[in-house]
Design brief:
The protein has about 130 residues and is an alpha+beta fold. It has one domain: 2-Layer Sandwich (Histidine-containing Protein, Chain: A), CATH 3.30.1340. Helix content is about 65%, strand content about 15%.
């Protein structure tokens, strides 16, 4: 009788051990879930990168608009002869002006705009 109980206990123990071992192995659902999580994480990283680039572009266009407005508001500067371009906060002024004083004034106006890191003054005096 003891032998039968021992065999039953050993059998039940083996059954439990086999079940626990099977639980540790990832099945198709767990593998698919991990892959899905990885895809979502990769997509979020790409969206973050794209939104950061978009933010820089919006900031640059905003800076360009503010610089053009400041130049336009300044008497004596001919805004149609001055081009403004902004890339990563660096403003480039190009075109022509009537005097060195107006060139310096345009650079000073551009430098005063919030977000401008530096100004490349490529204006030439006619």
């Amino acid at each position: 009788m003891n032998a039968i109980k021992n065999v039953q206990l050993i059998g039940i123990s083996l059954f439990i051990v086999a079940g626990l071992t099977a639980c540790n192995k990832p099945g198709p659902a767990e593998t698919a879930g991990k892959k899905f999580d990885q895809v979502v994480d990769d997509a979020n990283k790409k969206l973050d990168e794209k939104s950061e680039k978009l933010s820089v572009n919006l900031d640059d266009s905003e800076i360009t608009t503010k610089v053009k407005s400041a130049i336009f508001a300044e008497p004596g500067l001919k805004t149609l002869q001055i081009s403004v371009d902004t890339a990563k906060g660096i403003v480039t002024l190009s075109g022509s002006v009537d005097s060195q004083q107006n060139s310096d004034k345009a650079k000073s106006l551009a430098s005063a705009i919030t977000g401008v890191k530096s100004v490349e003054n490529r204006l030439f005096v006619k």
